[in-house]
């Protein structure tokens, strides 16, 4: 058997797709090939579960370790890692949690997982050390203002939810969880700092929509939000770090 075939069989066996690989596992007096395979399976599942628990540590805290480990095992078996870098594994875990009937009355669980995945991605982003130069903005001719295309640093990501996950997150990290009504929308910009901290910047819906449209590449003439009220706040919160002037699309 070729090495790639052996590896493919072993990978499939880890996910309980078949036990064919046992023919290639050496038997001893004390351990059968199937028992040895089960050791490999358990070790693999535990390792990937531990990786998920690191990414989704607050989600795990909300549901408890036993339940988290159980649903993680089911998620892993149905969504096996597709690459060797386990640090990138876990996308879609929140969607899986949202399908569980046990969590139907607790939508904030899946939303917390979605937030934590975004938190993880933001922590891995490169930090652009670039400040917005307001003096350059003042030099733009009035007839070109609608063609302005603002820029947002790569270390900024956006999160919105109909559950107040920002409040819940702050309570968890402060170890001061109290009974609260989480059925309130939250709009947040996550910004990685040079010291690797993730700053959570609260926004209202209009500020969030404006920033979302800017990230999508819309010029000032194309955005559908009141610029006079919301743009100065985004600048004040240092969520915009530059601009270009596009050619007139007419």
From TrEMBL:
<dbReference type="InterPro" id="IPR044922">
    <property type="entry name" value="DUF2063_N_sf"/>
</dbReference>
<feature type="domain" description="Putative DNA-binding">
    <location>
        <begin position="5"/>
        <end position="97"/>
    </location>
</feature>
<protein>
    <submittedName>
        <fullName>DUF2063 domain-containing protein</fullName>
    </submittedName>
</protein>
<dbReference type="Pfam" id="PF09836">
    <property type="entry name" value="DUF2063"/>
</dbReference>
<dbReference type="InterPro" id="IPR018640">
    <property type="entry name" value="DUF2063"/>
</dbReference>
């Amino acid at each position: 058997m070729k090495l790639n075939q052996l590896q493919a069989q072993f990978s499939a066996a880890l996910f309980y797709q078949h036990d064919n690989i046992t023919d290639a596992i050496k038997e001893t007096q004390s351990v059968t090939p199937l028992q040895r395979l089960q050791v490999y399976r358990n070790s693999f599942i535990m390792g990937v579960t531990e990786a998920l628990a690191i990414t989704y540590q607050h989600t795990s805290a909300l549901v408890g370790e036993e339940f988290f480990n159980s649903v993680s095992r089911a998620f892993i078996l149905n969504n096996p890692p597709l690459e060797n870098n386990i640090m990138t594994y876990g996308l879609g875990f929140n969607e899986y949690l949202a399908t569980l009937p046990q969590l139907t009355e607790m939508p904030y669980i899946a939303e917390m997982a979605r937030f934590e995945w975004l938190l993880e991605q933001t922590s891995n982003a490169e930090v652009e050390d670039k400040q917005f130069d307001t003096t350059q903005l003042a030099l733009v001719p009035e007839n070109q203002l609608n063609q302005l295309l603002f820029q947002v640093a790569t270390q900024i990501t956006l999160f919105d939810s109909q559950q107040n996950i920002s409040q819940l997150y702050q309570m968890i990290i402060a170890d001061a969880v109290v009974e609260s009504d989480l059925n309130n929308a939250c709009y947040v910009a996550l910004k990685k700092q040079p010291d690797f901290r993730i700053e959570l910047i609260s926004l209202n819906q209009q500020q969030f929509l404006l920033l979302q449209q800017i990230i999508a590449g819309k010029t000032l003439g194309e955005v559908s939000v009141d610029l006079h009220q919301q743009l100065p706040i985004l600048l004040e919160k240092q969520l915009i770090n530059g601009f270009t002037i596009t050619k007139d699309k007419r």
